[in-house]
Amino acid sequence: MLGVSSKIDDSGASIGKRYSRNDELGTPLGITVDFQSVSDDTYTLRDRDSTKQVRADADKILAAIKSLVEGTKVWTDIERELPACKQQFPLIPLPNTSDLQSANFFCS
Protein backbone atom coordinates (compact mmCIF):
# COMPACT_ATOMS: atom_id res chain seq x y z
CA MET A 1 0.00 0.00 0.00
CA LEU A 2 2.72 2.49 0.94
CA GLY A 3 5.42 0.95 -1.21
CA VAL A 4 7.64 0.06 1.75
CA SER A 5 8.82 -3.38 2.80
CA SER A 6 7.72 -4.94 6.05
CA LYS A 7 8.46 -8.00 8.12
CA ILE A 8 6.62 -9.43 11.12
CA ASP A 9 8.78 -10.50 14.05
CA ASP A 10 6.87 -13.26 15.79
CA SER A 11 9.97 -14.78 17.38
CA GLY A 12 8.61 -14.62 20.91
CA ALA A 13 11.59 -12.54 22.08
CA SER A 14 10.95 -9.67 24.48
CA ILE A 15 9.99 -6.34 22.94
CA GLY A 16 13.36 -4.88 23.99
CA LYS A 17 15.26 -7.65 22.18
CA ARG A 18 13.09 -7.18 19.10
CA TYR A 19 13.81 -3.44 19.09
CA SER A 20 17.53 -4.08 19.56
CA ARG A 21 17.63 -6.65 16.75
CA ASN A 22 15.89 -4.28 14.35
CA ASP A 23 18.09 -1.35 15.40
CA GLU A 24 21.14 -3.44 14.49
CA LEU A 25 19.59 -4.27 11.12
CA GLY A 26 19.02 -0.58 10.46
CA THR A 27 15.23 -0.72 10.40
CA PRO A 28 14.24 2.97 10.58
CA LEU A 29 10.69 2.51 11.93
CA GLY A 30 8.88 -0.17 13.86
CA ILE A 31 5.19 -0.74 14.50
CA THR A 32 4.16 -2.61 17.62
CA VAL A 33 0.85 -4.45 17.79
CA ASP A 34 0.21 -5.43 21.39
CA PHE A 35 -2.59 -6.21 23.82
CA GLN A 36 -3.55 -2.54 24.01
CA SER A 37 -3.97 -2.63 20.21
CA VAL A 38 -6.56 -5.36 20.60
CA SER A 39 -8.52 -3.35 23.15
CA ASP A 40 -8.41 0.13 21.58
CA ASP A 41 -7.21 -0.26 17.95
CA THR A 42 -4.08 1.85 18.50
CA TYR A 43 -0.51 0.98 17.57
CA THR A 44 2.96 2.13 18.58
CA LEU A 45 5.30 3.66 15.99
CA ARG A 46 8.96 3.72 17.05
CA ASP A 47 11.77 5.75 15.53
CA ARG A 48 15.11 3.91 15.50
CA ASP A 49 17.35 6.97 15.71
CA SER A 50 15.68 8.66 18.68
CA THR A 51 14.11 5.46 20.13
CA LYS A 52 11.04 7.59 20.82
CA GLN A 53 7.56 6.24 20.29
CA VAL A 54 4.11 7.58 19.49
CA ARG A 55 0.76 5.82 19.62
CA ALA A 56 -2.29 6.30 17.41
CA ASP A 57 -4.89 4.52 15.31
CA ALA A 58 -3.91 2.75 12.10
CA ASP A 59 -4.85 5.61 9.78
CA LYS A 60 -2.68 8.10 11.66
CA ILE A 61 0.24 5.67 11.92
CA LEU A 62 0.08 4.92 8.18
CA ALA A 63 -0.16 8.64 7.36
CA ALA A 64 2.89 9.29 9.56
CA ILE A 65 4.90 6.55 7.85
CA LYS A 66 3.87 7.83 4.42
CA SER A 67 4.96 11.38 5.23
CA LEU A 68 8.29 10.16 6.64
CA VAL A 69 8.98 7.95 3.62
CA GLU A 70 8.05 10.70 1.18
CA GLY A 71 10.18 13.21 3.08
CA THR A 72 7.35 15.69 3.69
CA LYS A 73 7.87 15.36 7.47
CA VAL A 74 10.62 14.45 9.90
CA TRP A 75 10.27 12.52 13.15
CA THR A 76 9.97 15.68 15.28
CA ASP A 77 6.89 16.63 13.22
CA ILE A 78 5.33 13.25 14.01
CA GLU A 79 6.12 13.67 17.72
CA ARG A 80 4.29 16.99 17.74
CA GLU A 81 1.23 15.52 16.01
CA LEU A 82 0.77 12.18 17.78
CA PRO A 83 0.67 11.27 21.48
CA ALA A 84 3.92 10.00 22.93
CA CYS A 85 4.19 6.49 24.29
CA LYS A 86 5.84 7.28 27.60
CA GLN A 87 5.97 4.18 29.76
CA GLN A 88 6.27 0.45 29.37
CA PHE A 89 4.63 -1.96 31.77
CA PRO A 90 5.17 -5.71 31.88
CA LEU A 91 2.35 -8.15 31.36
CA ILE A 92 1.09 -9.32 34.74
CA PRO A 93 -1.12 -12.42 35.03
CA LEU A 94 -4.17 -11.94 37.22
CA PRO A 95 -4.30 -14.32 40.18
CA ASN A 96 -5.91 -17.69 39.40
CA THR A 97 -6.43 -16.86 35.70
CA SER A 98 -4.53 -16.73 32.47
CA ASP A 99 -5.84 -13.21 31.81
CA LEU A 100 -3.34 -10.38 31.65
CA GLN A 101 -3.76 -7.32 33.85
CA SER A 102 -2.01 -4.78 31.64
CA ALA A 103 -0.82 -4.41 28.09
CA ASN A 104 2.80 -4.18 26.95
CA PHE A 105 2.49 -0.42 26.60
CA PHE A 106 0.49 2.26 28.27
CA CYS A 107 0.65 5.48 26.35
CA SER A 108 -0.79 8.71 27.60
Walkthrough of the structure:
By secondary structure, this protein is α+β, with helices and mostly antiparallel strands. The chain has four helices and five strands; from the N terminus they run αβαββααββ. Strands 1-2-3 form a three-stranded antiparallel sheet. The protein starts with 14 loop residues before the first helix and ends with a strand. The C terminus is likely disordered.
Write the layout of secondary structure elements.
Blueprint: H1 15-25, E1 29-32, H2 35-40, E2 42-47, E3 53-57, H3 58-70, H4 75-81, E4 87-88, E5 105-106
Antiparallel strand pairs: 1-2, 2-3, 4-5
CATH-scheme architecture: 3-Layer(aba) Sandwich
For the biggest sheet, the summary is: 3 strands, antiparallel
* Number of domain units: 1
Q: Which residues form runs of ≥5 with pLDDT under 50?
A: 89-94, 97-108
**Tell me, what is the CATH class?**
Alpha Beta
Give the mean pLDDT.
79
